[in-house]
Amino acid sequence: ASFAILSYLVFMDVISIIINIDSEFKKESLLKRMGLSPYSQKSQMLQQFAAQIIIAIFISTIYISIVLLRINLDMSKANIIYTILAVLVFSFTAISLGQLFVSLSKNVKVINGINAAFTLVMAFSSGVFFPVRLLPQGVVNLSKFMPQYYFIHFLQNINSEQFLIFIGSQAVFIMFYLLLAVFIKNYKLKEVA
Questions:
Q1: 3-state DSSP call for residue 37?
Q2: How large is the greatest C-alpha to C-alpha distance in the chain, in angstroms?
């Protein structure tokens, strides 16, 4: 249960921080200064993405440390390592979803609202707050289209095979969210031109 709630907190916080940082980079005064920079726009974007990864790892590490220090876990060392790695990978999924949310609107309040609603619905439907077996089958089927479902499923049966399935599922979500974000950004650029 601790790592399930941890996954919700990491996911929500990483996305929220990415949204707020990205909104600062979209301010006109900063965009003008970035335009004068000797670094290319591609280099600046890569630096922002690297910073997002560092922030996600930092946030995940803080939450993982709290869980490991405060809660007596009855898990083998291998399972703890698998779970820690799963939380880190899950934070990368949060980065990609954050990019998708940022591509939807320039209004930070709207994006934060979308984030709060999506992560809460995802957590409830995926079994973070109460067991999936208590949910209607339609909700369970819907939750299979959300990344947290696979994290919770991994937690229920931690082993190397489930870990690889989890990594594969998160890779699919990461690619889907990033491709959709790029598509939306390109569509908006064409719309403006």
A1: coil
A2: 58
Q: Is the pLDDT of residue 31 over 70?
A: no
Q: Is 117 helix (H, G, I), strand (E, B) or coil?
A: helix
Residue 167, pLDDT > 90, answer yes
Judge whether 6 and 86 are in contact, CB under 8 Å: no
Residue recorded with tokens 């335009």: 35
Q: Could you tell me the two tokens for 9?
A: 């907190």
Is pTM beyond 0.70? Reply is: yes
Say which amino acid occupies 43.
S
Mean pLDDT of 129-151: 89
Q: Which of 149, 120, 154 is nearest to 16 (CA)?
A: 120
CA distance 121 to 34: 37
Alpha helical stretches, state H, 26-158: 28-36, 41-70, 77-104, 108-126, 137-143, 147-156
